[in-house]
Amino acid sequence: MSSFPLLEGRVPGEDGITLMPFTSKHKWQAALMTVKEYPFPENFMAALSVYFDNDFGVSAVDDATGDLAGYYIAKAIFPCNTVGLSRKKVANLAQICTSSNYQKRGIATRLGKYMMDGSHPDFNPEDFDEVIVQDTDAFNSPSWMFSDRCGFRYFPTVDIIKRLGLLGYIQLCLTTAHVLPGQFLKRYVKSEDEAAEADKYEEQKGAVICFISGLLPCTYWAVHYWIQCAPYGGVDGLFVAYLFAVMYMMLVIRWLLAHSLVYKSDSIRPVFREYDFWWGISVTGCLGHVTTIIAGFPLLGYTGGFYLGGKGINYMKEENKRGIALVYLPIILLTLALFLAHTLLRIFLPAFLQNNAFVEVLGYASFYFSVTDLAMGLTEAFPSPAVCVRRWNVWLFAALWLAWLGVTLTTFLVPDEPFLYLYPTACKA
After folding, report:
1. Residue 107 to residue 97: CA distance in whole angstroms
2. Is 421 exposed, middle or buried (0-12, 13-18, 19+ CB in 10 A)?
3. Which end of the chain is more exposed for a tag (fewer CB within 10 A), N or C?
């Protein structure tokens, strides 16, 4: 029997976990839980959201100890939870977390159903045209599949624009910016037909999306040189053309390579999903804006990512670990080979690079791709190719990572010309 009185919004469970509206007294425990359970660096950013940026939500509390077992909170969408010219009402169920001390007890699903079945005294999904989940991560499968069980489905760009309009899509990108690459929106489906339609989006290969996903990264990269070259006669137009040409050439090749080792497999169907954090104007968009426009360091590998097509994919299962690793392995090897070739040219044929700006840009692009393809394999917060390989075969990942580290140290220390210094090529004067 629950030790809490049966006040409005309290739902006791047979396992000694009571669900109740999230209040300020839960914030401190929720923030600490988030720091512990979320991967770095997402944990600290999400903890701040718990403390300072939530409208309402639900808490799961252990009756015996009073400890917080999990929470699910919503965030407001500016202005007044209305979106687009049609002023559709949209609720944003943004963030969920359960304690590792209460695993395999279905708490996440219960939290989701609490919000969606009308148990919360201040939230009724029927009052909204759309209910979305802000940051679901297909790569860390539990959160993705939990929302499926609660009636949510993948909400890609094309469907957002279809339902909320282009201005509605831009508004969501600007006001509910994703914390990190690899975070997606999901929407609550209200019928079997809507669910079937949404499930088809998870099987689309995304060839067109892959191609256009490089637009903002290239634009930001060009803006960086436009700013930096202003005192030196401006940026060379041909150099800007090379930036876009290299980016799109790499995207096409990466698309083809993603299908190269698995083209005979019926069980492994790669799909591409774009990452829209590049649109964000808040601190959560800093990976796109600050690192590229200000620092001139674009994370080119995070235009989007490859995933396994179909619903209900659990990336923690061995066959799926192998499948997604085989999708990315040819891409990783290409990136490393191009980066190594550029390093060798910098050491032995620097004059060749000085006279071939396209090759120079390609070499630097391979390094920027390598940061996401090879270097970022030690944190689960980033859905990088390196993490996919590490999950499947840690020794192969270690060998590739050490090879990347060796090439990186060599290209920084051995050649006479400074690394990551494209200004003589980019600027007219």
Report:
1. 9
2. exposed
3. N
| Residue 273 exposed, middle or buried by CB count within 10 Å (0-12, 13-18, 19+) | buried
Secondary structure class of 187 (helix, strand, coil): strand
Per the omega criterion (within 30 degrees of 0), is the bond before 79 cis? yes
More confident site: 14 or 121: 121
Residue 107 backbone dihedrals phi, psi, to 5 degrees:
-65, -40
> 10 Å Cβ neighbour count for 225?
21
pLDDT value for 383: 83
Q: For residues 419 and 360, is the Cβ–Cβ distance under 8 A?
A: no
Look at residue 142 in the predicted model and tell me its pLDDT. Answer: 61
The pLDDT tens digits of the residues spanning 215-266 come to 989 999 999 999 999 999 999 999 999 999 999 999 999 999 998 877 556 6
CA distances from 428 to 218, 293, 359 (A): 19, 19, 18
CB distance 400 to 414 below 8 Å: no
Say what the pTM is.
0.88
428 Cβ partners below 8 Å, 6+ apart?
A: 229, 232, 233, 234, 235, 236
Rounded CA gap, 21 and 16, in Å? 17
Q: Which residues of 330-342 are buried (b: 16+ CB within 10 A; e: fewer)?
A: bbbebbbebbbeb
β-strand partners of 59: 20, 71
pLDDT of residue 379: 78
